[in-house]
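Can't attach files on this board, so I'm pasting raw text. These are the components:
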Amino acid sequence: MAVTGNEVRVLIKSDEDILAARQEGRELGVRLGFGPSDLAVIATSISELARNLLLYAKNGSIICWPINKEPRKGIVIQAEDEGPGIPDVEAVLKDGYSTSGGLGLGLPGVRRMMDEFAIVSHPGRGTTVTAIKWKE
Amino acid sequence: MKTGQRELMSAYTSALRTYLEKTDEAALEVAYELGRRGLSHEISLIEMATIHSDALGQIVSSMPHFPDFSDMLKSSAKFLIESLAPYEMTISGYRETNAALQASEERYRELFENANDIVFTTDFEGRLTSINRAGERLTGYRRDEPPPIPVKVLALEYFERAARMFQELIGGGNSETQELEIITKDGHPLMVEVSARPILSDGKPVGVQGIARDISERKRAEQALHRLNETLEERARHIAHELHDEASQLLVSVHIAIDGLAQSLPASGQQTVAEIKQLIEQIESELRRLSHELRPTILDDLGLVPALEFLAQGVSKRFGIRITVEGDTGGRLPAQAEVALYRITQEALNNITRHSGANHVAIRLQKEDNKIHLTVTDDGAGFDVQSVLGQKGRSGLGLIGIRERVIPLRGECIINSSPGKGTEISVLVPSEGKDAYTYPSGR
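---
Top answer:
Structure tokens for the assembled complex are below.
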């Protein structure tokens, strides 16, 4: 675990690391003044992204930092890995693609819960998923 | 209770108990895991809430002493929210659906607002209920104008036609496209072509929606064409008169002069004089024919059918084609219609003699209600209509000329032909009523 400036970074190598990432993300959320339901959404998104890291890239990092884009404030959650990459980003965002059994969880689920969402993937070099939750 | 639900209930109760004892992230992560498990066991949101409420009831009743409710409720709510968060990922993607809906509405609104034509809706009483920007711009009326607008909008002479159209529409039927004149807010007349249909709700008409196109440009072009045709007819009449009266008179004088000359010539010269006189007679007859084709007095004096018969005789004799004229018009037609139908037939015969190689041509006239139907049918070579009409050169001009004769009369023209199948030109023009021939001198 390392903190650079406002940024919180948690290496994800096992299930226990997911708990630490949730903890860090939630604490940052609390500091930024998010309410209970948004905090649950933030923690859930971190869990989903971290699970994906373990499943598809074996390991990676969850990074959270505050964002201030007047007049809005929010939190950025980023999952970064150096795994195999996603050949067809559009396809993984379709419900039913992932191993979560078509329940709309995983990446499409995170996209629905969060306010902004982006995937950058280079096959063979890794993937970065970035999501933002704005404070209402 | 489903098996999955019972198992979840006991896991949930124990996890909630743990969290109430020690409110840490690990317990909240379990709540999230339980929510996810609930989802995969198809346990609904309401069932999850019930599980939570039952679990909390069990925990409270098993407590040895009265707990601090305020803190406990706050904590248990946090746990519940955490367990329901995974549902937020799936709630039938309602955020996406909403966004898609909004985008689609936005597109339709833009289409409506940016159309060049007037797009409008009215209620049962004919009051405008919506109008787009083009409508505001062209009529000068604003969309928040107090009703009733339509009464002021329509030009008086079109009121009946519009009312008829509106009656058909609120009866639930469709109506033909109508040309109507509206008066803009600042008092200018504006010709529009209105097509409308009823707005149905549960199969019952509740209003009218329509599109009105500004056709003042087209009207101006039609009127200009009409005036041009009039002017050309007038010139033709004048030239015909000059040829017939002036030139013929001169030729009569030439006859007399030659007769005088002949008397002073020896018998050997008489033969030459007779030849010259014969040539002059040929010139006379050619002049008569030309004059007649330019503007047959018979058309003005006796009407369309005798004029067409005379035309047919002339063409038949010159080109050796059998031409029949059948039917009648049920009395004289307005001069404009007679001239137009005569010119159309003339142009059709021109095309036939030039290109078709036909042996037989049938010209038919028929009165249908208040319309006159003219058909010119030949058994000639035929042609591909689209490609001929599309040609820029001379060959397409005859057909285009026929169509342009029809436009100012608000008639219809259908040209039927294909290679090897002969040609039928069918023209339908109104024969009476102010609809057909009122032509304002232009604004």
